[in-house]
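Q: Sequence in, structure out?
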Amino acid sequence: MQIKPLKMGNIEAKLPIIQGGMGVGISLGRLAGAVAKEGGIGVISAAQIGYQEPDFDRNTKEANLRAIGKEYARARALAPDGVIGFNIMVAMRDYEDYVRAAIEAGADIIISGAGLPVDLPKIAKGAQVKLAPIVSTAKSAKVILKYWDKKYKRMPDLLIIEGPCAGGHLGFTRDQLEKYLPGQSQSHSAVYDDEVKEIMSIVRQYEEKCQCRILTALAGGIKNREQAAHAFALGVDAIQVASRFVTTEECDADIRYKEAYVKAAQEQVTIVKSPVGMPGRAILNPFMERVMSGECIAHGACHRCLDACDPAQTPYCITEALIHAARGEVEEGLLFCGAYAYEADHIETVREVINSLMP
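A: Exactly. Output:
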């Protein structure tokens, strides 16, 4: 496996590894800065990033926008020459404002999924920031590339292909997950490999049409050197890894959150339904058992996180559940994780994780 730096115009990551964005409060400035310092791309999640600000409950948006600048500065102090970006979900309320705040803060790259970021080029027009939409299927890849080409005459700097073994909200229906998930004895899904190859074929078509280079990264359940090598063998330029970085000393989450991964059994990692109806992957705990049994969990005032959420109808508040988790209240929180989170057996460093993935 030959590893090359990941170069996008005027920025370059020495290692082709992207740390996946994990909200709320899991990948902030400390983790992103540590990854960038080691030569990868460090990513801060903008999802309710200001939850630690004193006025978060009263002025959620203002607290979040303020925290974007703070967390970026924190990461940049750790990695003055590193590549640092933000993950900003399309499904977030005030999406455009968060993108602009990240650009103003100095982000090198904006990674955007949880919906198709069809108008991201318009929001970022005139900025030097690199743009990286997340797709999960050939259909979504074709939609985003066709739309950006037709409407904005530009292509992504990086296309991230997020597979069915990823953590958090997933870009698949339950039927698609059953189709694409690997078998128990497999480290990857041959069926989803075919989907990746189809996406890569679409990318090559647009590279030829637009006379440009579109870098690609594969994400979702990449846990070791073998899986990283398999990803590169499919033709991608980089890998994106998230769950492996949770159980690091530098991760921004509470130590009890990290220990929940270490203690989790394989059967506890399961597909759940978020309050907005999207499938996701999380660790089964007392909180999620209550939700899955049909209980509605009382919650406080709405923090206006997701466009699709109706506070009057939601079975629980995803913001509150994720904040509980980040603060270490693991029995009361939503513990998003990747498919192989249960394999974590100790707390390590960012450097050790990267060394275990790269040759």
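The chain has 13 helices and 13 strands.
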